């Protein structure tokens, strides 16, 4: 069992709270991604687990072994933790073949030659690189080098796998392929994994659960679909996927789980589902995904029809990306047909919007 427990992890650099009271339980065999904008504390959290950096407060344990406990003064050095670390730079030895690179951690651990050869072959087969065993790193593509780096980590059977933006050095096409390959490998490996990225497609497609971080804290933890469909706050809604925000005012009290009656800045009215109770007169922010916003036609199901002004239109291959102004808020939607004229009649489903209390502090 290699479950990972992080409790109350805090790391400060002078006045900066790089990580602030982060608690996370990763189950044995679970693949969890830390996702968030640059500087939100992802790498600092990972470094604290690997032992590359000593946190100020908190506790970290893997499979019952305490790696770090600030209160009890416990701090295991990285080599005693046995974490498998892979970074974005593969750092393969240029003068060693693929097989020698992969076998190197076992040489350091004084594993007997026959056993070493067997394990190198096994792990190269796992990452589908057995045909390249005799090649040197400069004879491989970036994606292949990253597979070798992963094999070099897997060969010593780490208790947990820590991957810090492993695909970010690859170009877009290669990255797509590497992501699919990594997805297939993770289902075979079933190794407890923490994956750090700021690429939301990687996070959503690879993970059992996603941890969204903001300013050193955890903003939300959940399975990919939950994070996308039920973001906890405007920050998560804005960071994951594309979200259109519209400020509004409540016209009447609404109970949790009820239908809210709302008014926009220009006096237009609409309805939306509200998870939480809210009072008449309070300010709220509505969040809509582009897939929930459609041109209004006579046959639309339950929803609100609103007047908007077209501000831009661009053909993006198969679709038109349309910029709209709704009561002073910029919106973006995708349409199959190019919209005509200056006005656009927009349909917003009652159940499609997410209602957050207060005014959202998100960039337009
Ligand atoms: N050695 C250091 N000295 C001072 N500040 C640091 C140090 N390492 C990290 N920080 C700061 O701590 C915060 C968190 O950094 P961290 O590297 O964990 O972010 P990140 O989410 O991994 O970012 P990125 O996606 O850019 O790698 C940032 O504000 C960063 O500037």
Short note summarizing the structure:
The protein has 364 residues and is an alpha+beta fold. Helix content is 24%, strand content 36%.
Radius of gyration: 25 Å
First-residue to last-residue Cα separation: 46 Å
The ordered H/E elements are EEEHEEEHEHHHEHEHEEHHEEEEEEEEEE
- Which segments are poorly predicted (pLDDT under 50) over 5 or more consecutive residues? none
Number of helices: 9
Count of individual domains? 2
CATH class of the largest domain: Alpha Beta
Report the portion of residues in β strands: 35-45%
Mean pLDDT: 91
**How many strands, which pairing sense, and closed or not: the largest β-sheet?**
6 strands, mixed
Shape assignment: elongated
Annotated CATH architecture of the largest domain: 3-Layer(aba) Sandwich
What do we call the CATH homologous superfamily of the largest domain? P-loop containing nucleotide triphosphate hydrolases
Reported by name, the CATH topology of the largest domain is Rossmann fold
- What is the tally of beta strands? 21
Q: How are the strands ordered across the major sheet?
A: 7-8-9-3-10-11
What would you call the structural class? alpha+beta
Q: Please estimate the helix content.
A: 10-25%
Listed once per kind, the bound small molecules are:
adenosine-5'-triphosphate
GO biological process, one term: quaternary ammonium group transport
Domain ABC transporter: 4-240
Family: Belongs to the ABC transporter superfamily.
InterPro entries: AAA+_ATPase (IPR003593), ABC_transporter-like_ATP-bd (IPR003439), ABC_transporter-like_CS (IPR017871), ABC_transpr_MalK/UgpC-like (IPR047641), Mo/tungstate-bd_C_term_dom (IPR008995), P-loop_NTPase (IPR027417)
